[in-house]
Amino acid sequence: MLDLTDPDFVGSILIASFGIPLVSILYATVLPGIERKIQARIQQRIGPGVLTPGFFNIFKFIFKHKPVITSTLPTLYKWSPFVGVISLYLVLVFTTPQWADILGLGSLVAIIGLLKVEEFMYVVMGYLSSNILSVRLPYPDTARGSKWPDAYRSTLENWGSVRMWKMIMLASLPLYMALFIPVAATRSIKIWEIVNAQSGGNAFVFTVPGFVGTVVFFFGYVAILNEYPFSIGKAKADLLEGPMMELASSWRASYYLMRALVMFAVSSVFVTLYFGVPLDPLNGLNLLIHFLLVLIMPVATAILSAFSPILTFRQLIPLSIVITLVGFFTFVMTMGGAL
Amino acid sequence: MATEDDSYAEFMGKGKSREKTFETEIPIGFNHSALLEPYRTRYFVEDEIIRDCEIEVDPAHRGIERILQGMPIEKANIITERICGICSHSHLFNSVRTAEIGLGIEPPEAAVAVRVLGQELERLHSHLIFIAHACEVLGHETFAYRTFLMREPVMQLLYMISGNRVHYSIPVLGGIRPRTQIPTWKGEKILAAMDELEVELKKFIDRVLSDIMVMARLEGVGLCDRKTAKKYHANGPTARASGIDFDHRSHMHEYEDFDWEMVVLDEGDNAARIKTRALECLVSLDISRQCVERASGDSDVLNRDWETGRMPMQHGYTEVPRGELYHSYALNDQGKIQHYIVRTPTMTNLATMEVACIGDQLTDGVVTLASCDPCLTCCNRFIVVDQSGKERLMTPGDLRGG
Asked: Which of A15, A43, B11, B306 would staple A281 via disulfide (CB 3.0–4.6 Å)?
């Protein structure tokens, strides 16, 4: 309940709204480094320092020269990653117990909506960007006997955008299915009620639907991160980072921050829903356990990515259908009490 | 006069009635940071499916043949080594043997064995680069890194034999450079290293070829049947992966006494092109062992009993890692080069892949082009500078003009 006259309540809300998310952001910037280090060790090389890819890269890019960005709507393009950062920041805020009962924001519906914003930003960026490498290849094809001189030319970023759109439809579906499996077990979409149902060591992850849900969630997590094998949207072999191609200097720094935050925020939601350990600023031990458990998903992702090629839609469509169906049947059977 | 803005508008299809033949074209290149080599691919796609493809390889022309014109044969031979940084030995070997055939020079047996050893080790490291590149294009960085680690002992062997890791400069007219002679102690070391390499290589090849995700990307993709391969003159491992049982080594006198088997597969897809090269690595190791056994010792490696002079146009073919390499030239009375022509295997192999990638997913199309192991800087041997602005067809006479 909103009681702005209660100083304890206001204090806890302020900590939950600013203190913990800011600490989480700092912690999140370490995760890309851990991921890269694990991949490097698998590939029998040293790899970058743990703080380099997430933390120092952000500062490095902030202080770089700002070039003119080629885009139809440059302002929106440049600020798109910030919109993603804000939406992920809010995910962290709304999963704290202090926001559990405020305006219904501490619910899965709010979380899913905010995660969708982050995904949608890739589509927006792809449509707005037109890098010189892909738009103006000054080569006279028409004079060289091309069979198709007048075909419509699509920029690489546009193509990446289309792929990102498909990925929203396909690959992140398992994530949303997995988010609803704990809902089926507790009959509530409120995060705090899902957490409370797991109190006393009854973590959902150790049940059959919890285990299946974890597997489904993991695939969704890798997909929302655009990591191998679900990285076709930014497939480096043919598209070179697609929608993010024009982001430079501080705008690229904000993209790195967004990516680090996705790694942390989505993993944090998993720990909250499946382990029943929330991001509680007033419970130090819980917070420590939460931060440790958050590592599970990025570490598993790093290992999977190191051993995977990029999958094309030829493989992604059947894979996504199978994983989503597994998630769906687990949801239905949990709902029906069969699991 | 058309301005830059006009050409931009035309480029983007504005202000011009365009035939919408295909839904979209995805142009990639030149000098695009996503590409490893300077070529330009225009994919004409519907959704993610490639309906047509055009490749251009123009900007890498270096004019090597023009440089060689009028150069003394001994000097020209060593320049040909600079055509490629991967198959440098292949070019020098073919250049030298072309003159040797034309001038009737017979190199000693041990020298031939060292030349073949260089050729097979080069094939081995080239195929390993190819596998690493294919894995990298697939997005499997771990396999790519591990393949490069696997290649390192091969580079060490080449370094041990020649003193260089890239340009080995093994053959000279009449034999090999004395520094590349293999004494018995070196031969034993090379054989021991090869035994270790073979064990690791077999394990690694099994691992790559049994990876479900990698094979899902490769099998049934980039199909090129025997008929298509023949039509577009595919050669080397690219042709052998489509069931064409031809390998120049079967006809080269240098390989006459070696015991080896040609690797031929029928599938004709990207997986087959990778498998062919992986299996050829083992064949190369086998031939290399035979070479070391023949070359070890203190026998003579250089025949100095020859003279340069007039040589009519001579043609030389060898089987290099990527396929058929053709060198041809004549010598004038002073033993200087006339009309040097080099044709590398990529020229026809890439044309074959241009057709093979039709029907693939866009991302698979990039793998298909890479699956013929293109070497574009070596491939581009011809350029016409014509500033008249008029379009014209090249005649055979133009091409023979030198």
From this structure: A15
Please tell me the distance from the alpha carbon of residue B194 to that of residue A202, in angstroms, as a whole number: 57
In a domain, A139, yes or no: no
Instruction: State the residue range of the domain holding A48.
Output: 7-132+155-335
- What's the CA gap between A207 and A187, in Å, rounded? 16
Number of domains in chain A: 1
pLDDT digits (tens, 9 = 90+) for A214-249: 999 999 999 999 899 998 887 565 546 678 888 889
CB-CB under 8 Å, B12 with A153: yes
Query: Is there a domain that residue A144 lies in?
Result: no
Model pTM score? 0.89
Q: How far is CA A268 from CA A95, A106, A262, in A?
A: 9, 14, 9
State the amino acid at position A239 in one-letter form: L
| Pairwise CA distance, residues B95 & B173, whole Å | 9
**Residue A182 domain-assigned?**
yes
Is the complex ipTM higher than 0.95? Answer: no
User: How many DSSP H helices and E strands does chain A contain?
Assistant: 15, 0
Domain boundaries, chain B: 60-347+365-379
User: pLDDT at position A54, please?
Assistant: 92
- Average pLDDT of the residues of chain A: 88
Identify the CATH number of the domain defined by range B60-347+365-379.
1.10.645.10
B141 touches chain A (CB under 8 A): yes
Question: Does residue A150 sit at the B interface (CB-CB below 8 Å)?
Answer: yes
H or E element in which residue B328 lies: strand B323-331
